[in-house]
Amino acid sequence: MTHLDGNGAAGVLREIFTTEMTTAACTCASCGRVSAIGALRLYGLPVGTVLRCPSCHDVVLRITETPRSWTLEIHGRVRIDRTQT
Amino acid sequence: MRRGPIPWRTSEVRELSWATPRVRLIRLHVPGWPGHLAGQHVDLRLTAEDGYQAERSYSIASPAEKPGIELAVERLPDGEVSSFLADELRAGDTLELRGPVGGYFTWQVEQGGPLGLVAGGSGVVPLMAMARHRLARASTVPAHLLCSWRTLEDVIYREELERLAARGDGLVVTHTLTRATSTPPPGFLGRRIDRTMLMEALPGPEQRPLLYVCGPTPMVESVASLLVSIGHAAERVKTERFGATGGVR
Q1: Fewer CB near the terminus (10 Å): N or C of chain B?
Q2: Under an 8 Å CB criterion, which residues of B touch A?
Q3: Owning domain of residue A48
Q4: What residue ranges define each of the domains in chain B, with the CATH number in brackets?
């Protein structure tokens, strides 16, 4: 299955976190790789979006959005660090 | 960066034109638009009469320095959203959008350069915003833009890119055609982007350029790994893929 970049999820992430998140650093719970959220691998699904680690390809975040709701699933002990720009 | 909820806004279609037989330029007036950075995109949401909604992301082609926003939409086979935008949208219609979003794939003149920009087809759109922003700010940061197109007919912004390159202010544009049936016209290469082309058309690794690659997934994969194999640092290569999984177009 082909993938896009985490940057493509900027809109729904902005909705959930109420701030720009694609430049935030995300540490994969499985392999410890640190990457910008915008550089994660984005897989679109009929029901939502899955963001995977670009290194080990394990799931990092799973997001479902409908017109009136969103759900964010965080897989394992994912760490997100964001610095005000 | 602004904080707080991001509203869905109602924008108005002000102007429509065809850049190529398959790519339509859409100029929108967005009341309350907070401004954007070159490289950012918007999420468009279409709602059918029965309530069915479809959402797609489109990069912004216009620089922040100009009022309104310009999108370029390529009509995709079986693209339910793109075929509506390309074939049915009329001036005066309204479009629901959320944005600007995506701070990762952005460039401002303050970040300096040199810049290495690589576009596959309509992947030129966010890079065009960067070139236009660079011009609007009278920047002389060296910028090298390499554009890959299927055929001459598919070239978007050809005249504008010629004018930008002719200014001699440090912007260099290279075009290549991947499916040219005859000899490519003067100034155009005639093959897929390869290692040699990337070495010749972009600043070398020793100049530590900021690299932005936007296009269809296979092209971006290939270019990004070639750039790293040439010696560019992987963290300086930012990518924006577009394709069929519902992401940025």
Answers
A1: N
A2: 1-6, 40-43, 53, 57, 98-99, 101-105, 217, 238-248
A3: 4-81
A4: 9-101 (2.40.30.10), 109-242 (3.40.50.80)
* Residues contacting residue B243 through CB under 8 Å, at least 6 positions apart: A2, A4, B216, B217
Cα–Cα dist B225/B22, whole Å: 29
- Rounded Cα distance between B113 and B116, Å, is 8
Give residue-wise pLDDT tens across range B24-44.
999 999 999 999 999 999 999
Structure-block tokens of residue A68: 């009136």
Domain count, chain A: 1
Q: Which residue of B has its CA nearest to A45?
A: B245
pLDDT (tens digit per residue) in B80-124: 889 999 999 999 999 999 999 999 999 999 999 899 999 999 999
How far is the alpha carbon of A77 from chain B, nearest alpha carbon, in Å?
23
pTM (whole model) above 0.90: yes
Tell me the pLDDT band of B245, cut-offs 50, 70 and 90: low
Among candidates B128, B123, B158, which has minimal Cα distance to B143? Answer: B128
Are residues B217 and A3, on separate chains, in Cβ contact within 8 Å? Answer: yes
The candidate with the shortest Cα–Cα distance to B216, out of B180, B248, B176, is B248
Chain A 23-62, CB below 8 Å of chain B: which residues?
23, 36-39, 42-44, 49
